[in-house]
Structures are given as C-alpha cells and as structure tokens.
Structures
1.
Amino acid sequence: MADLTTEFVGIKSPNPFWLASAPPTDKEYNVRRAFEAGWGGVVWKTLGEAGPPIVNVNGPRYGVVYGADRRVLGLNNIELITDRPLEVNLREIKAVKRDWPDRAMVVSLMVPCEEQAWKAILPLVEETGADGVELNFGCPHGMSERGMGSAVGQVPDYIEMVTRWCKQNTRMPVIVKLTPNITDIRYPARAARAGGADAVSLINTVNSITSVDLDNMCPEPMIDGKGTHGGYCGPAVKPLALNMVAEIARDPETAGLPISGIGGVTTWRDAAEFLALGAGNVQVCTAAMTYGFKVVQEMAAGLSNWMDEKGYASVSAVSGRAVPNVTDWQHLNLNYVTKARIDQDSCIKCGRCYAACEDTSHQAIAMSPDRVFMVIDAECVACNLCVDVCPVEDCITMERLAAGAIDPRTGQVVPAEHGDWTTHPNNPGALKAAE
Amino acid sequence: MTNSPRTPGIAPARLPREAYARNFADVEPPLDAHEAMVAADRCYFCHDAPCITACPTAIDIPLFIRQIQTGQPEGAAKTIFDQNILGGMCARVCPTEVLCEEACVREAAEGKPVEIGRLQRYATDTLMQRGVHPFERAAPTGKRIAVVGAGPAGLACAHRLAMKGHDVVLMDAREKAGGLNEYGIAAYKTVDNFAEAEVNWLLQIGGIELRTGQRLGRELSLAALEAEYDAVFLGLGLAGVNALRSEGEEHHHVQDAVDFIAGLRQAGDLSTVAVGRDVVVIGGGMTAVDAAVQSKLLGAENVTIVYRRGQDRMSASTHEQDHAASKGVRIVTGAAPLRIIGGDHLEAVEFAYTEEGPDGLTPTGETFRLKADQVFKAIGQHLAGAPEDVHIEAGKIAVTGPGRTTRLGVWAGGDCATGGDDLTVTAVAEGRDAAEDIHATLVGAAQLAAE
Ligand SMILES: Cc1cc2nc3c(=O)[nH]c(=O)nc-3n(C[C@H](O)[C@H](O)[C@H](O)COP(=O)(O)OP(=O)(O)OC[C@H]3O[C@@H](n4cnc5c(N)ncnc54)[C@H](O)[C@@H]3O)c2cc1C
Ligand SMILES: Cc1cc2nc3c(=O)[nH]c(=O)nc-3n(C[C@H](O)[C@H](O)[C@H](O)COP(=O)(O)O)c2cc1C
Ligand code: SF4
Ligand code: SF4
Ligand code: SF4
C-alpha cells in the first residue's frame, strides 16, 4: 500500500486531501465529521478581525452550471468570510485540534490591510494550537469591495507586504492563497515568495456570472431582483487551476515553492494531476459540498491504488513529476507527425467525426453512402478534434508516422530528429539567430 | 360480480371493476420532465442521422431531441409536427423497435437506443396539452379538395392542404374521424380518448369541413367528387377482412379481430365487452397480437395466437410478441386452421402443422385441436369499396410518386395504396406527400393559366 501521509510546510497529515476554507470548514460540527470521514486536514473557514461579525445575504448565495442529468459542473457563490464570532471559531478550532492531533489544522485569515490588524489576530490563532495560517487574498466578491481578499491578491506589492507582516509576527507556517482573477499568476506567486511565504495555495474562485434569469433579467443568484458576480469553482475551473499551478511550478523564480493545489478536485485522478503538476497536496470544496464528506474515501483509495500500480511509494514521489514536460509551444516537436485512424469495428457510424472535420476542420474524413468513415491522410492535419467528439472511446486514435515515412499531406519525409519553431525556417527569429 | 375468467362461453365482466382501469392503463407511461432531460442527453446529434432515414415521415430527430434538451419541448413538438402532424399518435403506436430506434447508433453501440418514441411523446404532449395549434393557414387559394377517408392518411393530407390555403372537405363512412386510430389501435396505446382529442386539435387549423357517415360507393361517387372538387384524395384504408377458407368459418363466434377491437375501442365501459374463456386468434401481425392481448386483459382464461408460418415470419415485431407473452398469451407457430368445430357453441379449432418448403407451405399431416369458445380472424385486411375507375394493382390502388393514381386529379395514400408498410406513420407520410403534390399541381396549373 502506497504511503499517503504528507508533510506540507512541516504540517503532517495522514493523506494529501484537505478541505479548503469554505462552508464545510465553518464550524466544529462539520470539521469533526470531516475528520471522522477521513479528511487529512482542513483550512478553517476564513476568520475576520474581532468585533461585530460579518453579515451574509439572506437570499440564495449560489449559482450553478449543470452537465447531463443535473451533474454539478460549476458552482459560484457570493458568500463572505465566516459570519460567526471570532472567539467562537477560535474556541472550536482549539477543541478540534486537541481531539484530532494527527490532522492538519490550518486557519484562514482575512483582516484589513494594516499591520496592526494582522498583529492582533495571529497570536489568537497561535494560541489554539493550529498548525498554520493561510492568507485569503482571493475572495473576489464583497470583501474585495472593502479592500480585502482579491483586492490585495491583485496587487503583488500588497501580497509581499502583508506576507512579510505575518512572517514577522508568527512562528506558524504562512500559506498565501492566490486569486486567479489576474492575467499572469507568476507575479503574485513571486511576491508571496519575496514576502517570505512558506507556500502558496491556488486557485481561489473565478469572477463569474453562471446564468441569467431571463424572466427577471437578472444574474443568478438573484437577491430581490439584483445579482452580483460570484466566485466560480467546481470541475469547470480545474483546467484553469492546473495551468496556474504548473506556471508557478516551472517558473525559475518560484521553483521549489510548495503549492497546495485547489480548483475542481473531484476524484482521485484530479488530485493526481495537481500533484503531477507540482502540488504537494490538494484542497477540496465543491466536491464535498456536492457529495458530502464521504467522497474523500474514493479519492484516498483511488490515489493509493494508482500509486501502487505505478510504483510510487509516497505522495512526494508523485509531486512535480510532470513539471519537466510542461514547456513552451516553441519547443514542441514539429517533426512529430500523426494521423487519425478509425477502428471500423468499434465505429457506431454516428458521423460526428465527419461533421466536425467537414464543417469546422480540414475536410479529412470521407463518408461513404453506407456510412463508412475513413480518414484521408492527404488532408488530415492531426488536430484530433474527431477523437474528441467521437462518442466511442479509443475508436479513433492518433497514430504516429514513423521517421522516414512520407506524410501524404505535405509530401515531405518525416524527419527522425526533433525540430521545433526555434529552428524552423519560417521563423524570422530563428533566421536571425542563425546569422 | 358473477363472471370470472373461468366462466364458460362468451361473457362480459370477467374481472373485478378496478382491474379494467389497471389492465388498460397507458402501456408506456409518459416521461416526466427530468426523465425526458436524461433521455435526451443520450442523443449524439448524429450527422445525417440514421434515425431520420428510418422514419417514414423523416422527422428531424436529433434536432427535436436537442430542443428538448435545451428546455424547448414546444419547439421540439413544432419540429415533429412540421413533418408529421400526427406525431402525437405516432409517438404512441409506431413500432419504433423496427424504425427509428432500430437505426439509432446507440442501438448498434450498446443495444439501448435513445428513447425516441417516448421523447416524441413528451414533446408533443407538452404542446398539445396547452391546446394551441402551431400552424397557420396560408392565404386562400380558392381551390376545394375532397379527402375521402379520415384515417391517418386522410387527416395528414387534409391538414397539409388546409395549411397551404386550400379548402378541404374531409369525408368518412364511419361515425367518427380517425380511422384505425379511433377504431383499431390497441386501447392501452392510446388512453384517455387521445385519438379523438388529436383529431380535434388537428382540425383547429381551420379550413377543413368534416362530414361523417359519407361512404364512397353509397352517398358519394368518384365521378360526382371529381365534378365538384379541384382534386380528390382517397385514404380508404383496408375495409375488408381476409377469409380463413376453413370449414365452419361462418360460425357466429368466429369474428373479425378488427371488429372485436373496434367494439372494444368504442365501449364506454370495458366490463360490458364480452370475451370467450378460451380464445384462439388466427394470424401473425399486429392485429392478431392486439386482439389476443386485449382478450387476455378483458379476462379470458386462455388466449392462443396461431400463425401458419414460422415465428421469424410473423409481421408482429419481437417487441410486440414479447408484450403478448408477458400478458400470458401463448403463441403457436407453423400451424394452419383446418376446421372450426362446434354446434350452437364453439368447441375447438383443428389445426394442421405446416412445413415451409420450396413449394411453399405444406401440411405435415399431423393435426391438433385447441379448445375454443371464441375465434378471431386476423390474417389480414384487403381493399374494399375502392372506385372502379382507378387502377388496382396487387390488391391496392396503384400509385406512382407522391400518390398519383392512374386517374388525373385523383390521389391516394395510406393502407389502400401501393407502396410502403401498413403503418400509421407511413399513412401520414403518404397523405402529406400527396397533399404537397396536389398543391404543386393546382398552383402550377393556376400559374400556367395566369401566364
Ligand atoms: C388492429 C390494428 C392495430 C394496429 N396497430 C398499429 C400500431 O400499433 N402501429 C401502427 O403503426 N400501425 C398499426 N396498425 C396499422 C394502422 O392502423 C394503419 O396502417 C393506418 O391506420 C392506415 O391509415 P389509413 O389512413 O390508410 O387507413 P385507416 O386508418 O384504415 O382509415 C381509413 C378511413 O377510411 C374510411 N373509409 C374506408 N372506406 C371508405 C369509403 N368507401 N368511403 C368513405 N370512407 C371510407 C374508414 O372509415 C377509415 O376512417 C394497426 C392496424 C390494425 C387493424
Ligand atoms: C481551436 C480554437 C482556436 C481558436 N482560435 C482563436 C483565434 O485564433 N483568435 C481568437 O480571437 N479566438 C480564437 N479562439 C477562441 C474563440 O473565438 C472563442 O472566443 C472561444 O472558443 C470561446 O467561445 P466558445 O467556447 O463559445 O466557442 C479559438 C478557439 C478554439 C476552440
Ligand atoms: S485529426 Fe483533425 S484533420 Fe484529422 S481527421 Fe480528425 S478532425 Fe480531421
Ligand atoms: S465519431 Fe466515432 S463512432 Fe462516430 S462515425 Fe466517427 S469514428 Fe464512428
Ligand atoms: S441515431 Fe440515435 S443518437 Fe443518433 S441522432 Fe438519432 S436518436 Fe440521436
């Protein structure tokens, strides 16, 4: 059995599955039950400063995007940080950590952008026995209007400044949670590192409107005839999150900075993908909110089985495995030539490949009157759209042309050696370099 | 209750009252909105979809299913009605297992086709339940057309003509319009008087005058119709029932299955419909299955279908046969009736086992008897009452192309005309196509005259 225990910025947990800071971690009752179900750790729902608690809307706070059969593909929310009194949260954090010493207990924080505010709250958290803090620089709605959350996360200088204040005022590890509502994720990550962050976690939710109520002409969720953008999460945001994680993992300026991967993790496979792209662990919210705490059992069992199959002894052995293979477009091998191949035995003759290629690609699939579909190699550019739209798995595959073969589309011999844009004759830059 | 399934002879009220409602309930209950969404999601939106090719009316199935999937069941219904104005009935009665659903690529892939028929019903029910009619008539053309026979072929023809702006007089020999939709289709396929409701909904287009109790050959003559109208369409169906040519056939408890079914369909109270204790149905098609199953559902103790050829030759689909078997109907194949035995009361039918050889069907010499107090003949219907002035070919009105008979100005379609299977949906297609041809002919002629 593979070893799922992880140590992330010195915080140990029995598995790499943490619940992200969100409603699932907003109170003692939830967190105890989450630990009973098997979660390796939690990041407690974001705490604000002492004083009158935050207020939430009293109407709906979620919008949703469905796939087939009402499967939740994406969720957005307009919830703010915890609306329970600070002292109640702190008391509960302490009680849970005392009873579950082997689980990771990280506390998310968001207070105004003043050193005094951070100085005041950090010792209170330390006193609970929590393992670390996560700085919420990501919440894109409500709090950002008050100069917090993503309003900080969108300004690298603020990130660096607040991170430094925290590092100077606590012995606990500091994780900086990043917002994806920015053009280049590397800048905030670099700022976090410069401020002394022990790790970054990402992504927080994406600015979004999931749908519009066309009767009331109002975005959802609708509060008394008005709506506002919310933060998008769930399976739909996973691709965005994976890319941002990979960007940070392969940026020389942030290389080696621990990453907690968040965004659409729903199955063991999602988790494995985040790990492969450089995350040291993952955090989950929407999957738990959709299916309940029990999902962690599938995630943990699946990851463990897969690691056994592949011979990975520990989570750290997986972490970052795919990073060396994330590269720039210019380095992709242009001499790697493939053609689509249709397996006639598994083809069910739906014609989707034909419609896709004929209408929107390269007219490289021929359809006979009796519905036999064949790839025309002389036209196929190997885009693989047909593979993507074919309803039968592995019915269409992309087969590589061996070196020395002639590509019937170009009439050129397929070279054996690597050849990319940096050396391509059509690249003016390559010519200049050669001169 | 005095009678039971074991009451000898032919008797009504064999079952407790509540059993009738249960037995004759919707054989395939409608999908609810969520089920329809899930079913619609399974459609691949195929290119040049094989299901469309397999539909005699060529409904754009992937399009209407996608409309359901995007929350537009009424738009879906419009897509269906554009091609098939009786899409509601067809959704209930089409043998989809040998039409669209057999051709569905998911049938090939996993033996579980997209539920096209049930989705079609979901869409058409949604629109029809609102009571609105989705089509408007074109500007009046001043042309008048006689449509004889108000079955699926006649109804589809009349509707399309009315839509094109022609005035239609729709005539039928029977008391009610609908043809076999009203008098023939199994009761559990078209519950809650759907056939009648559908006719009323169809007539909302306007421009169609319905005259019932008008029989061609009695009140009407082709010559008179030709003189009075700009065109004539014949959708007469098959009014005659084939004879067994067996000894004793004239016994009064040997009945045409179609008459039994028509009586059942028109009975307000099914407990009044009398049925035998031991029922034998002779035939191998949809009519045989329907007569047998409905006999069983009325409380007959033993019901047997006997078909003269092998099971694979039965025109009732496997689905229909399975349905009969699931209701407790026994199917005997490879046996032909020799004689009907009995005096005042019927006693039995004697059959000879048959063999299929190069010279056709021959008796093996072995015979057997089946106890029977009621026998239904369901060995096919034939054309009856067709006017003499049109050419008949292989027992049907000969037509070419979109229903043109040998007589100029006279079209025909549905079961009475050559070509196509004898199915509701085929009748609709032929009626519709004839209407388009009539329209093109009349408008073309008018244009020529104007020039
Ligand atoms: C018992 C039974 C069950 C069936 N079940 C199915 C099924 O489940 N699915 C399916 O697809 N098909 C089924 N069919 C076949 C289907 O009903 C027919 O193919 C379809 O009704 C043919 O339509 P039509 O308009 O040509 O004829 P019909 O429906 O027969 O209509 C003909 C009309 O013309 C009228 N008429 C006849 N002669 C004259 C005259 N001389 N003057 C004036 N009017 C006249 C008749 O009264 C009738 O109203 C079944 C048939 C039978 C008998
Ligand atoms: C294969 C592909 C290539 C694209 N190329 C371009 C492009 O060259 N320029 C551009 O402005 N958008 C491009 N787009 C983006 C599309 O125009 C569009 O903005 C995007 O796909 C979102 O729309 P959709 O998901 O509704 O189709 C491309 C999209 C795809 C899928
Ligand atoms: S890979 Fe692209 S170009 Fe080639 S057949 Fe498929 S869709 Fe067409
Ligand atoms: S998409 Fe796949 S299954 Fe459909 S026709 Fe093409 S190869 Fe066959
Ligand atoms: S064949 Fe089946 S999957 Fe394809 S369009 Fe028709 S119903 Fe949909």
Note: The two ends of chain A are 57 Å apart (CA to CA).
2.
Amino acid sequence: MPPTPDKEIAATFKLLLIGDSGTGKSSLLLRFTDDTWLHPDEVSATIGVDFKVKVVDIDESKYKLTIWDTAGQERFRTLTSSYYRGAQGVILVYDVSSRATFEHLNLWFNELDTYSSSQEVIKMIVGNKVDKESSGSREVSRKEGEAFARKMGTLFIEASAKTKTGVKDAFIEVVRKIIETPSLWQKQQNKTPGTIHMNDDEAPQGGCAC
Amino acid sequence: MEELKTHYDYIILGTGIQESILASALARNNKTVLHIDGNQFYGGNECSFNFSEFLEWIMNVQKNDNKAKQSTTTNDINKFYDSYHDIDIKILSGYDIPDNEPEITNRFALQNNKIAEEFLKQTQTSVEKDKLALLKDLIKDNRQFYISLLPKMAYSRGPFIDLLIKADLGNYLEFRSMEKTYIYNNDVFENVPCTKEDVFNSKQIKVIEKRKLMKFLTFVMNYRLEKESYEEYKDKPYSEYIKTYKLNPELQQVILQAINDSEEGLEDATTEEGLASTYRYLKSLGKWGNSPLICPLYGGGSEISQAFCRSCAVYGGVYMLDQKINSLEFKNNQYHLDCELKFTGDHLISSIDYLQDQSNIEITDYHKAIIITDKPLKKNIDISIYIIPPNTINNNKNRIMLIQQGYQANCCPKSKYIIYICTKATDTSKEEIKNVIQQLFEDKNDISEKNKLDEMEGENNENIKKDEEANDNNNKNDDDDDDDDEEEEEEEEEEEASKPKAYISVIFKQSIRKQKSLETKLDKTTLTIIDDMLPGISMETPVENALSIFRQLHPEIEEIYSKPQEEEEEKEEKQEEGQKEQEEQITNENEAVEEQTQ
Ligand SMILES: Cc1cc2nc3c(=O)[nH]c(=O)nc-3n(C[C@H](O)[C@H](O)[C@H](O)COP(=O)(O)OP(=O)(O)OC[C@H]3O[C@@H](n4cnc5c(N)ncnc54)[C@H](O)[C@@H]3O)c2cc1C
Ligand SMILES: Nc1nc2c(ncn2[C@@H]2O[C@H](COP(=O)(O)OP(=O)(O)O)[C@@H](O)[C@H]2O)c(=O)[nH]1
Ligand SMILES: [Mg+2]
C-alpha cells in the first residue's frame, strides 16, 4: 500500500511513552502499531525502534501519529530533551503487578513538568499487564489507578499488551483529547517559517552563489 | 525488569559531541556501549544551560577556582569545572525596581528567585535591589534560555551535515540560517558580502573592486583544479597570496578574518590552508538561505550531543548521567569502572575531562564572554556573527569573534539576545574583551534620561514605539532581499541612538586541553582520549576527528551508517502493509473506546 498522501492528513501528532523500565512501553507500542507481541526472550527485537508512525481514522479524518519510544533511556532517567519537545500526548505506563512502578509515576510527572514544552499536554495513565490478574499477581487495584489519575487530572485505562485489551483505546483516547484541544496543536502544525529540517534536505534555493 | 549488562565492548566517559558521535557510530555497528557522564546534563563542555543553571554554573566555577587557588585537591575524577577560570560578573545597574512585587506562589519561581539572591550574595559585594530585580525578571523566563559554553554552527555542506543525514538524526534537530556576518571597520560593523548578490548590491565596494573580488571567489571555488596557479605560494602566507589579486585592504581583511571558520582567522595561515578554509565557506553558500552557516536551535552543542546519544540508545547503548566516578582501573585487560554501579569494558573512550593524569596535556586558553542584552547588535538581525579584526578596537592583538543568538535560535525569550565573545588569551585579552563590551554595550539604565523622555512625550512615546515596531516587522516579512541596503542605512542611524544594554556580562577564561603527543597517549591500544573541541564557529573539525577515531578503532567497517538504514526501510514497508487493515478496525472500534475510557 502506498503511504497516505500528506494532503489527506488532517494533522500530525507526536505522542510519547514514559514510565519505569519493564512496564511494557515498547510492547504497547508494537501492539498498537504492528499488532505484534514479542516473546519475552525476543527483547533485542525492540532495538532500533526510534519512533513508529501510524495513521488513524477518527471521525472521518486521518491523523498521523508519530509515537516515540524511550530507547531504554528511562532506566536511569536520562531521556534527551528533544524526546519531550513538541509532544501533544504522553502515555505514562505502570505495571499493575508492580506497586513500585505505580509509585514512581510521581517522579515521571515531575520529569514531564520539567521538560515538556506545554502544560496542556494530554496525559494518559496506563496500568499495563492486566492479564496477570488471573495469576493473582496484581499489586495495584483499578480503583487506586483511577483515583490517582483523577488527582492528576489525566485520562486512565488498564491494558494488556499481551492480550490487546485496552491498547488501541489508550492511544485513540489520547488522540481524541488532543483533537478537542486545538490550542495544543494548531499553531505547531505550521512550523515556524525559516526552520530547517534535515529530512526535507534540499531546500528551494539550490546551486552555488558563486 | 530486564537485567542490565555489566560488561560492555566500550565504556565511554563524557557526553561531548565527539564522544557522542562515537557512541552512536559504535552502537550502530553492534558494539555494546555504556555511556557515562559525571555531570547532571548532556554535552560536557558543549553543554547549554537555562538561566538558573547558568547562574549555578558561574557560582560553581568561582568556588572551584577558589578551591584550586588554595590547592585543595578533590578526589572527583570529573575535571569539568577545571577548564573554566577567572570569572568576572557584571550586572546592569539602575534597573527599574517594581513598586509592588506580585506575590509568587509557584515553587519553581520561588526556588529560582532564591538562586538569583544566592548568586548576588556570592558574586557581588552586596545584594543591590536593582540588580536583584533584574535577575528576577530574567529568571522568570528561565527555561526559555539556552546559554551555551561553546556555541557552534554548521556549514550547510560538509561532513557534519552529511553525518546527520546518514545517521538519520533529522528528527531530533532543528536549524535556522545564520543571517549575516559583520566585520568591524572604521568604528562600525559592516556587512560582509558573501553571495554574488551581496557583492553586487554592496555600496561599500566599488565596481572595480567587485570584479576583482568575484574573480578571486570564482577561483577559490575551483582552486583544486588549478593547482599550478598558486603552487609557488602554497606554503607561503595566504595574506601574501591574496595580495596578488590586488584587492583593497578592507576586502583582504574580509577574506582573512570573516569568511572562514578558523579559530583565529587566516592571518597566519599558509596559502594551502587558507584556500581550503575559504573554499569550505564558499561551498556552503546558497543551500539554505544566503549564509553558509546554519545554527542549531535550543543551544546547539548539547542538542547535537543528545541527538547522537539518543541514536546510540536506540541501538542498545546504556546511558547514565550524574555519575560520581569512585574509581577507574585497568586490570586483566579490562577497564573496571566503579560509579553508581560496577561495570567492566574492553575499551575505554574518555573525554579529557576524565583523564586522571592531567600532566601530559597541552592547554590553549581563550578569553570569552557571555552577555545577555535587550537588543540585537544590528537592528532586526538575530542569528549573526561579528568579527573584530586585530587592531580595530583599542589595538586588540588578536581577532575577536562575537556570535549573537536570540529568539530566532530558540535560545532566548522574545526581545532578549545572547552575545558570545571569544578571543585567544594573551596578557591583554581580558582588557580587550572589556573594551569591546564597553564600546558596544550600555552597562547602566540611564534613569534620568528615561524620565525626561517620559515627561515630555508621555503616552505619545509609547504609540510611536509601537508603530515603529510594526513597521520593522512589515519590512522584514515583505522582502528581505531587495531592501537590504536601505534598511541598513536607517539601521546605523538608529543604533547611534542607543546601544544594547548588557543585562549581565560574564567574562571568563576557558582552557582547551589537548594531549601533548602520541607517545604519551598511553601504550594501551584500548584507550582513546578525546581532546577538547576548539572554539571555532563550525562543527567540521570535531566531526572529522570523531570519524577518524572511529576508523582507527574499526578499520574493517566501511560505511558506518549503511546497514541499519536498509533494515529500517524493510521494516517500514512491512509496517505500511499492515496499516490499512488496522485503520479500518480502529474506526469501527471508536464507539467502544468512548464507553470504556473515563
Ligand atoms: C508538578 C510540576 C512540576 C514542575 N517542575 C518544574 C521544575 O522542576 N522546574 C521548573 O522550572 N518548573 C517546573 N514547573 C513549572 C512548569 O513547568 C511551568 O510552569 C511551565 O513550563 C510554564 O512556564 P511559564 O513560563 O508559563 O511560567 P509559570 O508556569 O508561570 O512559571 C513561573 C516560574 O516558574 C519557572 N518555571 C516554570 N516551569 C519551570 C520548570 N519546568 N523548570 C524550572 N523553572 C520553571 C519559570 O521560569 C517562572 O520563573 C512545574 C510545574 C508543575 C505543575
Ligand atoms: N504478562 C504481560 N507481560 C508484558 C505485558 N507487556 C509487556 N510485558 C513484558 O514485560 C517485559 C518488559 O516489556 P517492554 O515492552 O520491554 O517494557 P519497557 O521497558 O517499558 O519498554 C517484557 O518481558 C514483556 O514481554 C503485558 O501486557 N502482559
Ligand atoms: Mg522499552
């Protein structure tokens, strides 16, 4: 299939994933964009994933999402500032079977406030790995998760990258919320004139001046 | 959580640009990389700071300098602060003190204001109200400042841009064209003509000179094909060779001082070196805008480091900042690093900041200044370069270079500008920098004058100002190219009226460190020390250094960034195939989504 022509795209949004290592961020991303699930011993498969692009249809318009993964830089909180820059939506992930990852969300909110460019950014808390409930290893109840999200004024959902539960919902809901907040993205869609991006390499004025 | 490896092919200390390029190149070629920095931030000596971090850096430099004077030794391996010395701070006096300060509740604002106060306590003899008010005003926009310790730009054609494109880092970095270069002549900054249009439109250059200049520039563009024509001058001074083109002294200065990227100008360069330098400059003209240089946004150096670091991380590199290094030893053919955790590595690449034995290094000092102002040096010009050739302001010995970056470079809030000054250190260089600052900037708010104006013109004054601003903006948007000359003339008159105010000016000495000679570079082939980057404007030399180190480490790898990119393309194709089905599913499921989420 040829890539969707840009003129059909209503807007492009940058989303990113944060949260402790091992909470399933990369798995959620792969599930959402490629509908794949990696066996735990296939860890190296997420090497080389910078960000993924996905076009979604919402209310008959197409939106292009670039969803950024942490590249493992969340482990020691060394994410680079360009990671956060210009994001309209953030998905904060914890693991429902690990209370520590839930408690660390506070640190992630702090990190986000320090680096993100706009306070309006849409935030979604995702309690991942709900499939582990059946084996009795849940450590954070849905209620607790919901209460924390309410306190922080963010969206909330429980999900499982393994069983697909809630994964699409998590991403789509963030996008819907972004669409409802035009101030967040409308000015950013028209990049400031004069900014040079390496991707559109050869700019209009070619040739040598001499 | 996935287990963290404890052994790596490479341990890299320092996240300066060169170390970061190497980290990225190694990871892309399947080497395991552990990348460590002793500072809380990325970039090493190429770091950039927001306003409060800048104040803290100044305080730390002062403390470190005092410690060094009392020769108290620290056991910290990280020598970051040791390359900055002798720091002088001047803050504008007479700043308006607000009648009633608004009450501040935001905890960050409170904390930042505390830093401002602490800063005045440490660096000034007393905490004066006007100065505190000024600092508080600046720190309000704390995070809009990106103040660089080693401001850099890049040629639009050259190894740096090639590398960015090959490494596919376009998504992490943004640039803007440098707008103009000026050279100081007869007590004013004159625009340096660099494009054909500039040369032809210039009113400063006579027609006959224009022809000679064009002849020279055209020659340089093809100089490598015409080796015979400069053969006999090859190793002689470039300045002599240029004379053969019979250019007037001003144009000779332009060539030697302004249109190149060397640290100190081409006054002492050989013809061979000089031609290469002029060529690199000319080659980059016309790709993006009128100038050959593009300026990375958000403070430059640190952003570039971070782009390479992220690309290393994407390919498995592990990152740790803010590491106190307790010990680093080489035993049993491995490096043993003890920081927050313990690691081993087969190879060590270390910035000179972490070199334990600092006895074998050669130091070149530069005197620098960082100034924050309310106005650009030239009206309506943001990102720009100003060259002060030797002997032009109070007999300055060496060339002095100024770089200006403002809101357009995303380095400042609106209507603030950062001006960087740099010159090679001599026994008089500090005085020379002070002279330049005195010549170009105002160091106090002249309240009496302002009050007079206010009384006389009252509200009218405000309106006129606004009109003027609106006009300026129109001019700028309409047609940048055509009206240049007219604008300039107006400009100069206006500038006479008032110089930019130096809100804060910080003068310091920076040591650029280099290993003395190859023999002392240690007998171990598994150790690579990275010298400091020189303060020249462009990024080409450090990139070439890093790449040549990579080739020494891995002569077997021909194309550093070739393979992974092909893989990516394959992946992308697959991804696109799956996309259509998924889109359909999503549309169908939208309703369900709304019910489930809060
Ligand atoms: C939970 C939380 C944590 C935050 N953490 C920080 C933080 O660590 N550091 C911080 O400076 N701000 C922090 N902020 C403030 C927030 O990021 C800024 O308010 C936002 O960036 C918009 O800034 P503003 O220019 O509109 O000014 P305001 O939000 O009105 O900020 C007022 C003052 O706070 C300073 N400030 C604001 N944000 C930051 C920031 N992220 N880092 C440093 N100074 C800031 C500004 O420079 C200014 O002096 C935090 C906010 C929240 C809610
Ligand atoms: N049972 C279960 N395991 C998961 C789920 N999501 C991720 N994992 C596992 O958790 C581990 C870490 O996942 P990863 O996506 O690498 O986490 P990241 O570090 O946040 O990117 C891997 O072993 C995954 O297989 C999930 O929804 N359920
Ligand atoms: Mg991951």
Note: The first strand of chain A starts at residue 9 and ends at 18.
